[in-house]
Design a protein that fits this description.
Largest sheet: 2 strands, antiparallel
Protein name: Serine/threonine-protein kinase STY46
Domain Protein kinase: 1-212
InterPro entries: Kinase-like_dom_sf (IPR011009), Prot_kinase_dom (IPR000719), Ser/Thr_kinase_AS (IPR008271), Ser/Thr_Kinases-Pseudokinases (IPR051681)
Strand content: 5-15%
Pfam families: Pkinase
GO molecular function: ATP binding; protein serine/threonine kinase activity
Radius of gyration: 21 Å
Low-confidence stretches: none
Number of strands: 6
Oligomer: single chain
CATH class of the domain at 38-190: Mainly Alpha
Length: 219
C-alpha cells in the first residue's frame, strides 16, 4: 500500500499520522492502522479558531508542516480543507495542524499520473494533470486555494494576502511564491505570542521590581 509506505517514511513529519500497522501489498484487502490526529479539519476552522489572528496562525502552521513534508522529499498533491486537521492543545491552548490523507503523495521528481487527463480538481496544480514530475510548487498552488478559503472566513480584509493567494495559484509554476514568502506575508499580520517574546534583561527586571515595591509602599 503506497500511502502506508509514505507514512512509514515520513515518521510524523508535517503532523502526518504515524503508521502503527498495515496489511501489506500481498493482502487481498488493503488496510492500515494509524494514530489519530484530531476530529476537526480546516472545514471547521471558523469554529476552532477564536479570531482572525488564530486563523492566520493556523495557515502559518500549515506552511511549516508543508515544509517538513517537502524536506522529507514528498509532495502531497491533494492539499485541501478536509485534508488538514486543526486541534487545540488542552495544556497550553495553542493550535496544532496536521496534514493527513497522503494517498496521492509522491516523491519529488515522480509524476502523479501516467497519462494526461482533464483537470477535474480545482485545488490541484494544473501541471499535475500534464504528467509533470511532482515538485513543491504544486503544493503551493493548493496552499493558495486554502489561503483564499480561510481569508473568506476572516472578519477583516487582508488584500495583501489575497494577492499572495492569487500568485500562489498562478498557472505557470515559475510565477508562484515560495512557501517561505507566504510565511513572511502571514507573519506580517500576526502579533507575537507572549511566550515567544524575548525575556526581560535582568537589570530591567530588577528596576521594574524596585519600582513596583516603591509604588506599593506609597499606597
Amino acid at each position: 500500500m503506497e500511502e502506508a509506505e509514505v507514512l512509514r517514511r515520513l515518521q510524523g513529519a508535517g503532523g502526518a499520522p504515524r503508521l502503527l500497522a498495515s496489511s501489506g501489498a500481498a493482502a487481498r484487502s488493503q488496510a492500515m492502522l494509524t494514530t489519530f490526529c484530531g476530529a476537526h479539519t480546516f472545514e471547521d476552522l471558523v469554529g476552532v479558531a477564536r479570531n482572525d489572528q488564530e486563523m492566520l496562525h493556523a495557515l502559518l502552521l500549515l506552511c511549516r508542516a508543508l515544509q517538513q513534508l517537502h524536506r522529507r522529499g514528498y509532495v502531497h498533491n491533494d492539499l485541501k480543507d478536509n485534508n488538514v486537521v486543526v486541534r487545540r492543545e488542552q495544556s497550553d491552548g495553542r493550535l496544532h495542524v496536521s496534514i493527513i490523507d497522503l494517498g496521492l503523495a509522491r516523491r519529488k521528481g515522480v509524476p502523479l499520473f501516467a497519462t494526461r487527463r482533464d483537470q477535474a480538481r480545482s485545488w490541484m496544480a494544473p501541471e499535475l494533470f500534464e504528467c509533470e514530475p511532482c515538485r513543491a510548487s504544486m503544493d503551493v498552488f493548493s496552499l493558495g486555494s486554502l489561503v483564499w478559503q480561510v481569508l473568506g472566513m476572516c472578519r477583516d480584509n487582508y488584500p495583501l494576502l489575497n494577492c499572495m493567494a492569487d500568485e500562489a495559484m498562478a498557472e505557470d509554476p515559475r510565477h508562484r511564491p515560495s512557501i517561505k514568502a507566504i510565511k513572511r506575508a502571514l507573519k506580517s499580520f500576526l502579533q507575537p505570542h507572549p511566550s515567544s517574546l524575548p525575556p526581560l534583561h535582568p537589570s530591567l527586571h530588577t528596576r521594574l521590581r524596585s519600582f513596583f515595591r516603591k509604588f506599593t509602599n506609597k499606597n
